[in-house]
Amino acid sequence: MIQGPAGAIDMALDLPAEASKGVVVIAHPHPLFGGTLDNKVVQTLARAFTQCGWTAVRFNFRGVGGSAGTHDDGRGELDDLLAVVRHAAPTGRLALAGFSFGAFVTSNAFATLHAERELDALVLVGVAASRFNVAQIPTEARPKTLVIHGEQDDTVPLTAALDWARPQILPVTVVPGVGHFFHGQLPLLKSLVVRHLSHGQN
Q: What is the full DSSP assignment across the chain?
């Protein structure tokens, strides 16, 4: 637990096998639809980063699990994420990752933090572009950004993710035949993230 802007924030830490390269903060899907830090996609992202030597920080947005407060449509959740970053990685190497609603919040956190410090990697899965105002990725940060989407996502249509990515010329990795929660394809999701981090020498 740490103190956040709305009170306590519930966090979980996943440690790499050897000395940590840095910290990744991972944001979970929509709190009002069962999203928590224990979400399978969030856990998969954490395992991918720890395999690559990163310390992974998962946390519950306000009003979820042990976290105080109530849902705030992304505004307060952005404050929560930034509070977790300030606590878990005030200095040193930092990466951000998020799934669905968490990807929307993460994009805005990245936009905020990019002006203040260097970020090593950004991973957005099932980005909720049809439902929220997902921030654009700064041009110089796009090579370190991985966007993954399921072809048959019925929560956030692939077309919405492409419409968001198109003006930025931001590549989207599409997993054929897969829905929003990547059922049956979590190992593939993990391998895509590991490959991105390895190729980026992160």
A: -EEETTEEE-EEEE--SSS---EEEEE-S-GGGT--TT-HHHHHHHHHHHHTTPEEEEEPPTTSTT--S---TTHHHHHHHHHHHHHH-SSS-EEEEEETHHHHHHHHHHHHHHTTS---EEEEES--TTTS-PPPPPGGGGGGEEEEEETT-SSS-HHHHHHHHGGGT---EEETT--TT-TT-HHHHHHHHHHHHHHTT-
Q: Which residue has the tokens 């980026």?
A: 200
Domain spanning 2-199, CATH architecture = 3-Layer(aba) Sandwich (3.40)
* The predicted structure's pLDDT at residue 200: 62
Q: For residues 138 and 118, is the Cβ–Cβ distance under 8 A?
A: no
Count other C-beta atoms under 10 Å from residue 47's C-beta: 18
Q: Evaluate whether 105 touches 78 at the Cβ level (below 8 Å).
A: yes
pTM for this predicted structure: 0.96
pLDDT value of position 199: 84
Compute the distance between CA of residue 10 and CA of residue 198 in angstroms, rounded to an integer.
30
